[in-house]
């Protein structure tokens, strides 16, 4: 299901956070939202999930206005996995994931076998089946993040919004998380994720939207959008797009503005490729 | 959009299927243990009925459970009472309304505590600790002094609302003040909320005492103690009606909101993304707890810690799901207060102890335990 944003605007406390954005996000694809801290990535995801209300404009999923829908109906279509999704430490993992069934359950209906099955599949999908019975309090940051994602999947949405899925994850877990999102998109789910690492966006996204100061700076296929010139302009860093030696995908090498190439063999080489891309900045 | 052919890694997630053992274990976990909940519910309900009957027999005039049942039966229209009018009066006019009020107040306070803990995401929330009870006391005492006793529950509700707004406003203000630069979205910290509750309770407690002292002629100290510490002395069938009606009218919608309360476990943003109308739910549910607290305080004064202790005790048994937690907390709260009040009126017979002293004696250590536990898990 494609997502259409038309003139979406959002002010908070008199400040414009999202500035009349127009964008079309393809259905059944992985769209990456990239941009510097404070560009409005998380806010845009919150507006799509209607966790916050756009000041003006409309957001439509396959032509149906999201803000105009009833809350429960919308929550059956759109799920949000937060960056640091809060989970009550008293819950066990399965109970936490079962909360994703909330929009599907009536006020008096008990959680049924079908719901448990869906929760089990969601845990399976994020590779978290092994700790289904554990208390959330015992989990590491990365494990919690998977539980938050599993809860979103248990909502059985058509549109999955994921804020910073690689935050707090080690290198291997970052790739696993991105593989998972790309795989979900291949299966037909529309996935929108805020990412800091441009090389991740280049490697995994089908569509990239670059945000800066609440505006869309560029949008399109990663290979066309993520140019050295754009990265330098948006982030104020030096950038060069090279070919990934293993995958052949674009790799965005960045360096601080004043950096110069060091002599070969020097231990003070220029900022390593793709590092400093903010995967650990955690400020969204 | 075509998916890129090559990915950065060929790692595959999600290949293992859950084992049968895991499935069996999952189905027995806390969230959906419906039969377990029913079993506990039936057990506690039976225990409550037995507690009420036995509690009525306890006191200076010796009565047997059979006497109690005979009297109750007669008043409900099943046959003639076999008791003397005096003994029948002790059962029906003195002890029964008091025990039933204790049950209703205990159930209501436990329910309010559980709901407030979920909404404020604060394990230390309780109508007493957050100042609602003291605000309700001011409202109740003022209308009693003015002689407008018909307004009693309404005034107590108004007092509880004012106190709740004061506590939450103060806690939010403290949250903002404690954050340099004033970033958006101040949050209610449990500690700030409890501290704000202490401040509000002090002020409203002082106002209650002043109003009583100013108006009363002789025994104002006892009356002040009864309001500040909570007491069920002097309760009658009107008390049963006020607390019982409030419990049904407010309690039923609160219990029916269990799923919404569950969703608050994932925070406000998370709950909103699950389809919960966070702002409206919070206003309605907190308003409901204030209303219920008002009605309960109007008949019993500020009995503390029932709303703190019982929900936590029940959670240890059935887990945090509110569909089980709310009704079982109510039953446990009712049983708890029936026995606490029975102890309060008999321990120092013929003198009465305000029952709030006993609930604080038990609740204080539980509060301390919760503080220590919070520290170890966060």
Describe what you observe in this structure.
The complex is a heterodimer of chains A (284) and B (378). The longest helix of chain A is centred in the middle third of the chain and has 16 residues, at 171-186. The two termini of chain A are 26 Å apart. Chain A has 284 residues and is of the alpha/beta class. Chain A has nine helices and twelve strands. Chain B is an all-alpha fold and 378 residues long. In chain B, helix 4 crosses helix 13 (306-318). Classes of the chains: A alpha/beta (284), B mainly alpha (378). At the A-B interface, helix 2, strand 6, helix 3, helix 4 and helix 6 of A face helix 1, helix 10 and helix 11 of B.
Residue-averaged pLDDT of chain A: 88
Work out the number of β strands of chain B.
Answer: 0
Radius of gyration of chain B: 24 Å
- Report the end-to-end length of chain B measured between terminal Cα atoms: 44 Å
Strand content of chain A: 25-35%
Rg for CA atoms of chain A: 19 Å
DSSP helix fraction of chain B: over 70%
SSE succession of chain A: EEEHEEHEHHHEHEHEEHHEE
> Hey, roughly how much beta strand do the residues of chain B contain?
under 5%
Helical stretch count of chain B? 15
The neighbouring-strand order within the major sheet of chain A is 6-7-8-3-9-10
Number of beta strands of chain A: 12
Structural class of chain B: mainly alpha
Shape of chain B: globular
> What is the tally of helical segments of chain A?
9
Query: H/E element string of chain B?
Result: HHHHHHHHHHHHHHH
In terms of per-residue confidence, which ranges of chain A show pLDDT below 50 for 5 or more consecutive residues? 269-284
Regions with little confidence, pLDDT below 50 for 5+ residues of chain B: 1-32, 180-186
**Looking at the chains present, what oligomeric state does this protein adopt?**
heterodimer
Structural class of chain A: alpha/beta
Largest interface, with counts of residues having CB < 8 Å to the other chain, equals: A-B, 75 and 52 residues
């Amino acid at each position: 299901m494609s997502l259409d944003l038309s003139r979406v605007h959002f002010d908070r406390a008199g400040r414009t956070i999202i500035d009349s954005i127009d964008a079309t996000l393809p259905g059944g694809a992985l769209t990456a939202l990239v941009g510097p801290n404070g560009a409005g990535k998380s806010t845009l995801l919150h507006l799509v999930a209607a966790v916050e209300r756009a000041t003006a404009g409309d957001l439509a999923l396959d032509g149906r206005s999201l803000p105009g829908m009833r809350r429960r109906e919308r929550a059956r279509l759109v799920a949000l996995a937060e960056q640091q999704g809060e989970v009550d430490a008293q819950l066990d993992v399965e109970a936490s994931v079962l909360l994703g069934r909330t929009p599907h359950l009536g006020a008096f209906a008990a959680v049924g076998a079908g719901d448990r099955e869906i929760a089990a599949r969601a845990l399976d999908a994020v590779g978290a089946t092994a700790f289904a019975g554990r208390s959330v309090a015992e989990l590491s940051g990365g494990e919690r993040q998977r539980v938050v994602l599993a809860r979103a999947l248990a909502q059985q949405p058509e549109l999955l919004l994921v804020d910073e899925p690689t935050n707090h994850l080690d290198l291997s877990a970052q790739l696993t998380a991105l593989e998972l999102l790309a795989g979900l998109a291949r299966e037909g789910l529309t996935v929108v994720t805020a990412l800091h690492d441009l090389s991740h966006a280049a490697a995994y996204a089908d569509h990239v939207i670059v945000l800066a100061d609440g505006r869309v700076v560029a949008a399109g296929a990663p290979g066309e959008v993520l140019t050295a010139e754009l990265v330098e302009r948006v982030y104020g860093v030096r950038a060069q797009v090279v070919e990934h030696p293993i995958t052949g995908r674009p790799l965005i090498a960045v360096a601080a503005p004043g950096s110069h190439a060091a002599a070969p063999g020097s231990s003070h080489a220029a900022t390593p490729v793709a590092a400093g891309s903010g995967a650990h900045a955690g400020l969204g | 959009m075509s998916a890129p052919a090559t990915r950065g890694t060929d790692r595959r997630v999600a290949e293992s299927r859950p084992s049968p053992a895991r499935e069996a274990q999952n189905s027995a976990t806390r969230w959906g243990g419906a039969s377990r909940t029913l079993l506990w519910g039936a057990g506690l309900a039976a225990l409550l009925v037995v507690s009420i009957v036995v509690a009525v027999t306890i006191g200076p005039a010796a009565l047997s459970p059979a006497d109690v049942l005979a009297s109750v039966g007669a008043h409900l229209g099943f046959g003639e009472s076999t008791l003397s009018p005096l003994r029948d009066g002790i059962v029906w006019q003195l002890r029964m309304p008091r025990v039933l009020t204790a049950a209703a107040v205990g159930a209501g306070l436990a329910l309010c505590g559980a709901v407030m803990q979920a909404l404020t995401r604060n394990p230390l929330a309780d109508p007493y600790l957050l100042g609602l009870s003291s605000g309700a006391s001011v409202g109740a005492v003022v209308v009693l002094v003015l002689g407008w006793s018909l307004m009693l529950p309404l005034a107590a509700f108004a007092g509880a609302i004012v106190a709740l707004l004061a506590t939450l406003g103060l806690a939010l203000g403290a949250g903002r003040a404690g954050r340099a630069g004033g970033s958006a979205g101040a949050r209610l910290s449990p500690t700030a909320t409890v501290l704000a509750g202490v401040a509000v309770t002090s002020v409203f407690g002082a106002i209650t005492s002043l109003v009583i002292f100013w108006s009363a002629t002789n025994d104002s100290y006892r009356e002040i103690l009864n309001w500040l510490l909570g007491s069920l002395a002097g309760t009658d069938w009107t008390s049963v009606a006020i607390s019982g009606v409030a419990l049904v009218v407010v309690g039923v919608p609160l219990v029916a909101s269990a799923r919404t309360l569950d969703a608050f476990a994932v925070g406000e943003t998370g709950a909103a993304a699950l389809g919960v109308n966070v702002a409206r739910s919070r206003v309605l549910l907190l308003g409901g707890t204030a209303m219920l607290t008002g009605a309960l305080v109007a008949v019993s004064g500020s009995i503390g810690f029932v709303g703190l202790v019982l929900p936590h005790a029940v959670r240890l048994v059935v887990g945090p799901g509110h569909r089980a937690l709310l009704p079982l907390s109510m039953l446990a709260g009712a049983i708890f207060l029936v026995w606490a009040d029975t102890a309060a009126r008999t321990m120092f017979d013929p003198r009465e102890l305000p029952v709030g002293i006993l609930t604080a004696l038990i609740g204080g250590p539980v509060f301390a335990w919760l503080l220590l536990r919070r520290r170890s898990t966060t």
